[in-house]
Design a protein that fits this description.
Chain A: One of its GO terms (molecular function) is ATP binding. The complex is a heterodimer. By secondary structure, chain A is of the alpha+beta class. In chain A, 28% of the residues lie in helices and 19% in strands. Chain A has a 4-stranded antiparallel beta sheet with strand order 2-3-4-5. The termini of chain A are far apart. The N terminus of chain A is likely disordered. In chain B, strands 5-7-6 form a 3-stranded antiparallel beta sheet. In chain B, strands 3-4 form a two-stranded antiparallel ribbon. In chain B, helix 15 runs parallel beside helix 17, helix 18 packs across helix 24 and helix 31 runs antiparallel to helix 32. In chain B, 31% of the residues are buried. Among the domains of chain B are: 176 residues, no CATH class; 150 residues; 99 residues, Arc Repressor Mutant, subunit A (Orthogonal Bundle), CATH 1.10.10; 65 residues, Arc Repressor Mutant, subunit A (Orthogonal Bundle), CATH 1.10.10. Classes of the chains: A alpha+beta, B mainly alpha. Chains A and B meet through strand 1, helix 1, strand 2 and strand 3 of A and strand 1, helix 28, strand 2, helix 32 and helix 33 of B.
């Protein structure tokens, strides 16, 4: 009879590529970045998280992705869809990707050009994070802004003091960017 | 004005040809002055001399004129041609000379020939020669031409030709007779000769331009018959064919031909038209000879011919033979005939003919190339011919064009099996390598073939099984069904060695180096050897697909009960050299799995507690342990394993986990083999079967029952929790083994005694029945994989469209091909179909040629 041996060891989700055995040695090797991103993509496709998705923007550059976040329930962003741009550095995952909101968003931690203030995209980044975890963090950031270090002071204030006005500003600012 | 001018010119032209002024046989009468004798003999000159000067002059004028007229009359009435002719002989017999040639005539002729000196005073004189020419012309047109056309419509071509020649000869005699009479009047030999020549030339011009189509046809037939019989003698006995033999055989037609040419020459039919005709026929006879002698002959027709012609030593078989033929037979005949016509054949002409002949041979070979390929290697001679002659880019282009067309027509159609296409391809690779080692020609013709092969799903499978087959094990018949050739090549050490040289771009010591062919493409790289396998593999599409298929096949073979995997290892080694180690890493691991598990299995099997079944037979248990990640995905189809086996499985798995920490076994229950021992009332059966088949029959095992066990399909299904189609396949299997019987309503009963079988049961139908479900099962297995693939692909499409915005079908496909690990195996059509399904399900929408995710 035939049987399959399944490896249960070292199945850390962050480094699925290690199953292949020999690669993922640290180093700015574009081959390994591509490989890693390909694996991440595969993972995103195989086990999609609700409300977030990401995909390479074009077929010739694996380092540039477009992501989509749906506004979580019971937040001012319910029913809205936000687009983001991911730019992966060539030493990814040893450095964080640059993430920008493409959709105009009114949020205490996002400025008007879409830049995001999130610790895991800066000094708290580790190689164990991946695109999916970043997206999930951002999704939760929408519901729970970090008002101690706002990029948009007005928004932080309104969030705390005038939820109705905040909601109005969010709706006013939001604009679906056209596909293509 | 233009019209009148034209008319005047026309008149002038007409006049110059048909001299109307001198058409009358009787001369013009001079003006009749009083006292002038009419028509009588001229008065003696002495009488005239006494007269006065002026009248004398006048009188002399008169008498000269009369003299002239008389002479004219005498001559013209004598040489006038008969006005009516019915048959050739009625041209009139020529009067005998002595009787005819009297003094009167001769003096008259002499007078007419040179009027200026004999009758200087006559005002009206004419040229008797042109008169004769003119009458001959008229006679020819009015009498001989109708005769000729009558002749040419006669019976056979030979007869027609002969009659025509006779007629013309008779006419010739007649015309020349008149001429000879006239010519006698000339005083000097040279002017007579001159006049003769001029007349002849005129006559030949008339005759030469009077070809009737019938005559031409007849002549063509006769000539080609003669020439073909001289030139294209079949060498029925190549061994005994000496020059003498041929000469003897061709002597008769040759003499006949020369005779014909001679007579044509003498009657003036050997003009330009005849020469053109002759050239045409000679030309076609060369064609006929080449096609008759060399088509389908791809080996040397005459081996000893080579040494006899040292100049042609570098040329091969047919080509040398052809050159020799042109020089000795064709050229010889041409020289002979041309000499008769008074023409010369230059040596250069013969060389030129040789070139033409070889060109013809090559175009024949080019047309035959496909058959040459099919017969390879028995058709080496043909390829040699081509190689020696196909040297210019034009000819190479012609070759590839013609071959591609033939290929399209004869090979790339649905009627051909993939195997035969592949076999032809192998022959093509070899033939073209022999023809053109630079591989440029092959590359040009195989594109269509490669495209076509991509449509054949089984192509890769056939190649891989061919590679993996063992040439020694297979019978003749079987080897025809596979590409065993490949395995032979693979095992050929010469092939292996040569490949090692590859990779070295510049071999400075290669003394046989030649520049790349001019028509090579941009990315051309000179191949070092014919490399059948390499070319074949590269033709089958991308490397990934090939490796994937190879993996699937090798997985199948590794899981079979085969014990040695030498051939597989060899092929794997070959592929590694070709594609690189990393590409075939999975296969390596698979191989290693099998080797490892053999060792591990030995250890684990020892540790198992010996288990005895109810009847005291011991149960053996062995497994192959595969690393899931490296094997092609195999769908898991579990079922309830018979209890004793399950117990063993557990023990085995526990043993494994002890040996290999942190790993556990996942059983693929349905992929194994089991040896089954069945004890029935009248017989016992020992056989090997699939595990699920064994499980199904085990379900019928009930100790202590006397009546045959009976179960319904649903009962077993529930008991084993087995896939329905697996169960179906197993039940059918046991029915064909005559162990179970369907007693209707999907209820099965064990056939304890064979004679229980109802006589009406046709074993054939049951055997047929067994195959169907098996293949259906296989299809199901694939479709499960396909199902999974569709899910993944769908996720990709959704991700792509959600984030990247709407995309056309082509865009989606390129993205998928780039981004899905291992590539997207779908074609554009498959994706289209898939997307259409999703559109109809409402999951995507198609707007303006682009797909997008509908907004909620």
């Amino acid at each position: 009879m035939n049987a399959m041996a399944e490896e249960n060891a070292n199945a850390a989700p962050a480094i699925p590529a290690s199953k292949q055995g020999n690669n993922t040695r640290p180093g700015p090797d574009s081959q390994s970045v591509t490989k890693r991103l390909q694996t991440e993509l595969m993972q995103l496709m195989m086990s999609p998280a609700p409300g977030v998705s990401a995909f390479p923007t074009s077929d010739d550059n694996m380092l540039s992705w477009t992501a989509t976040i749906e506004g979580p329930e019971d937040t001012p962003y319910t029913g809205l869809t936000m687009k983001l741009a991911f730019e992966f550095p060539s030493n990814y995952p040893y450095a964080p990707p640059t993430v920008l909101f493409k959709t105009p968003i009114y949020h205490p931690n996002v400025d008007f050009s879409g830049r995001i203030c999130l610790d895991i995209l800066k000094d708290k980044w580790t190689a164990a994070y991946n695109t999916q975890t970043v997206l999930l963090s951002l999704q939760s950031l929408l519901g729970e802004p970090n008002n101690s270090s706002p990029l948009n002071g007005e928004a932080a204030e309104l969030w705390d003091n005038d939820p109705a006005e905040f909601q109005r500003k969010v709706t006013a600012r939001h604009k679906d960017i056209d596909d293509e | 004005m233009a019209v009148s001018k034209f008319r005047a010119r026309k008149h002038k032209v007409l006049h110059s040809v048909f001299d109307a002024e001198i058409s009358q046989p009787t001369p013009l009468l001079p003006s009749t002055e009083p006292g002038e004798p009419f028509g009588g003999p001229p008065p003696p000159p002495s009488a005239l001399a006494t007269d006065a000067a002026a009248p004398r002059l006048h009188e002399g004028l008169m008498s000269d004129q009369v003299q002239w007229d008389r002479a004219w009359h005498v001559v013209t009435s004598r040489i006038q041609l008969p006005s009516s002719v019915a048959i050739e002989d009625s041209f009139g017999t020529l009067a005998s000379e002595s009787q005819d040639y009297d003094d009167v005539f001769s003096s008259a002729v002499a007078l007419l020939v040179d009027p200026r000196s004999t009758v200087p005073l006559a005002p009206h004189t004419d040229d008797i020669l042109s008169w004769h020419t003119h009458q001959v012309r008229q006679h020819f047109v009015n009498h001989v031409l109708p005769l000729l056309s009558a002749c040419s419509s006669q019976g056979s071509h030979d007869q027609a030709l002969l009659a025509s020649i006779r007629t013309l000869e008779a006419a010739h005699r007649q015309y020349l007779y008149g001429l000879s009479l006239i010519v006698r009047g000339y005083a000097s030999e040279s002017s007579a000769h001159h006049a003769m020549l001029r007349f002849r030339r005129d006559l030949h011009a008339i005759i030469g331009s009077s070809w009737t189509s019938g005559l031409q046809n007849a002549l063509r037939q006769v000539l080609s018959r003669l020439i073909v019989s001289i030139v294209c003698v079949d060498d029925a006995h190549p061994g005994s064919s000496t020059g003498l033999d041929q000469d003897e055989r061709t002597a008769v037609p040759r003499a006949e031909l020369l005779e014909l040419v001679d007579s044509l020459q003498s009657v003036g039919l050997a003009g330009e038209k005849f020469q053109a005709l002759l050239a045409e026929i000679m030309d076609s006879s060369m064609q006929t000879h080449i096609y008759k002698t060399y088509s389908g002959v791809w080996s040397e027709p005459r081996g000893e011919g080579l040494s006899a012609v040292p100049a042609a030593a570098m040329l091969t078989g047919c080509m040398a033979d052809l050159r020799e033929w042109i020089e000795n037979r064709y050229g010889q005949l041409a020289v002979l005939v041309f000499n008769r016509l008074g023409l010369q054949v230059k040596y250069g002409d013969v060389e030129c003919w040789k070139d033409i002949g070889i060109g013809r041979l090559v175009s024949l070979r080019i047309q035959e190339l496909f058959d040459i390929v099919l017969r390879w290697p028995h058709s080496k001679g043909g390829v040699d011919d081509l190689r020696a002659a196909v040297t210019t880019p034009e000819r190479r282009l012609q070759l590839t064009d013609v071959f591609s067309a033939t290929l399209q027509k004869r090979l790339l159609n649905p009627g051909r099996s993939t195997l035969s296409i592949l076999q032809t391809y192998v022959s093509m690779i070899r033939t073209f390598h022999a023809l053109d080692p630079s591989k440029v020609l092959l590359d040009r013709v195989v594109q269509a073939l490669q495209l076509y092969l991509c449509q054949r799903d089984d192509a890769i499978r056939i190649v891989v099984t061919g590679l993996l087959s063992n040439p020694k094990d297979l019978s003749e018949e079987e080897s025809e069904k596979r590409l065993v050739e490949l395995a032979t090549i693979l095992n050929d050490p010469a092939q292996q060695q040569r490949r090692q040289i590859e990779g070295d771009d510049a071999d400075w010591n290669d003394m046989s180096w030649i520049p790349d062919p001019v028509d090579a493409g941009v990315n051309y790289k000179r191949p070092k050897n014919e490399d059948v396998i390499g070319t074949l593999i590269s033709a089958l599409g991308s490397q990934e697909i090939f490796i994937k298929e190879f993996q699937a096949i090798i997985a199948e073979r590794l899981l079979s009960s085969q014990t040695s995997y030498q051939q597989e290892l060899k092929v794997l080694g070959l592929l590694k050299r070709r594609f690189g180690e990393p590409a075939l890493q999975n296969c390596d691991v698979m191989m290693k799995d099998i080797q490892d598990s053999r060792r591990l299995d030995a250890i684990l099997a020892q540790r198992l507690e010996p288990t005895l079944d109810a009847d005291g037979h011991s149960l053996g248990f062995h497994s192959k342990i595969l690393s899931r990640l490296f094997w092609p995905s195999m769908p898991k189809e579990p079922f309830v394993v018979p209890k004793p086996v399950a117990a063993l499985q557990e023990q085995y798995a526990a043993g494994f986990e002890r040996v290999k920490n942190a790993r556990k076994l996942n059983w693929l229950d349905h992929l194994g083999l089991a040896t089954v021992h069945l004890e029935l009332e009248d017989r016992t059966i020992d056989m090997e079967c699939k595990t699920y088949e064994a499980a199904v029959i085990f379900a019928f095992d009930q100790e202590g029952e006397t009546a045959p066990v009976q179960k319904t399909f649903d009962e077993i299904w529930l008991q084993l929790t087995i896939e329905e189609d697996l169960l179906d396949a197993a039940l059918t299997f046991w029915q064909t083994q005559k162990v179970l019987k369907d007693i209707g309503d999907r209820t099965y009963i064990v056939m304890e005694r064979l004679d229980d079988e109802s006589p009406g049961d046709d074993p054939d139908t049951t055997v047929d029945g067994s195959r169907q479900p098996a293949s259906a099962r296989k299809a199901k297995g694939i479709s499960a994989q396909e199902q999974q693939r569709q899910t993944v692909y769908w996720q990709f499409v959704v991700g792509m469209l959600t984030n990247g915005g709407p995309k056309p079908l082509a865009g989606i496909l390129t993205m998928m091909k780039m981004l899905i690990p291992g590539g997207c195996t779908w074609t554009s059509e498959e994706l289209q179909q898939f997307m259409n399904e999703k559109v109809s399900e409402g999951n995507v929408e198609l707007v303006g040629g682009k797909y997008r995710i509908p907004k909620k």
